[in-house]
Amino acid sequence: MNARRSLAGMIAALFAVGCLFAITAASASAVSKLCKVKEVNCKVVNMWNANTVFKGEATDTKVTIEPIIEGKFVLIEITCTGSVLKAKTTANEGAQVPANGETLTFAGCSSKQAETCSVAAVNQNFAGGFIGSPTGSGTFETNIVLVIKCAKPKVECTFAAGGAMQAIGGNPGSLQAAATLELIANGSENCPSVASWTGKYVLSEPKPIWFTE
């Protein structure tokens, strides 16, 4: 129970620090909005408001990890043929448009370098926030945590997805993961300090979408 509480506290702390840096870096007067058309200072009539559901699917998600096997780093690339991300906004606008995660799943995962590998989100109800820009594309800040497992060689590593996902405006828009994963728990005692996660989540909801300010 104490370990579970410690992990939850670490996740919350990482997200709080990330949000602080993101908000500090943004202009003090900038207000992010989710817009149905590509325009600066999105009009109220064109805004996606609170309770907007985001659903994105990636068909080629990759996680790359280099565990230490028999004293050497061994590159393991895990490819998942299906990954679904869902979240729902909780406000109309703000320095960040806040959103609560509802689902992050990975399916059809396999590796040529290891056996019986899987990728899973520890915190399905992750916290997040959209930051817009005048270009109509921005970022999606989250506190997503992933656990990576393989049966042979035995690997069990838990990582925080450091950095933000790119939020690309369009019809459809997309959320693109290109994150450096930072180790926060070592279940197999051979985990590297960092790994990587890439994937393009094409949004079926909402559509169209631009991340503006």
Secondary structure blueprint with pairings:
Blueprint: H1 2-25, E1 32-35, E2 53-58, E3 61-65, E4 68-69, E5 72-73, E6 76-89, E7 93-94, E8 97-111, E9 115-121, E10 127-131, E11 138-142, E12 145-152, E13 155-162, E14 165-168, E15 174-186, E16 194-205, E17 210-212
Antiparallel strand pairs: 1-7, 1-17, 2-6, 2-16, 3-6, 3-16, 4-5, 6-8, 8-10, 9-12, 10-11, 11-14, 12-13, 13-15, 14-15, 15-16
Structure summary:
With about 210 residues, the protein is mainly beta. It has one helix spanning about 1-25; strands spanning about 30-35, 55-60, 60-65, 70, 70-75, 75-90, 95, 95-110, 115-120, 125-130, 140, 145-150, 155-160, 165-170, 175-185, 195-205, 210.
Describe this structure in words.
The protein is mainly beta and 213 residues long. It has one domain (2-212). The protein has 1 helix and 17 strands. The chain has one helix at 2-25, and strands spanning 32-35, 53-58, 61-65, 68-69, 72-73, 76-89, 93-94, 97-111, 115-121, 127-131, 138-142, 145-152, 155-162, 165-168, 174-186, 194-205, 210-212. Strands 2, 3, 6, 8, 9, 10, 11, 12, 13, 14, 15 and 16 form a 12-stranded antiparallel beta sheet that branches. A 3-stranded antiparallel beta sheet has the order 7-1-17, with no helix packed on it. A hairpin with a 6-residue loop joins strand 10 and strand 11 (138-142). The N and C termini lie far apart (42 Å). Mean pLDDT is 88; it is low at 1-5 and 20-28.
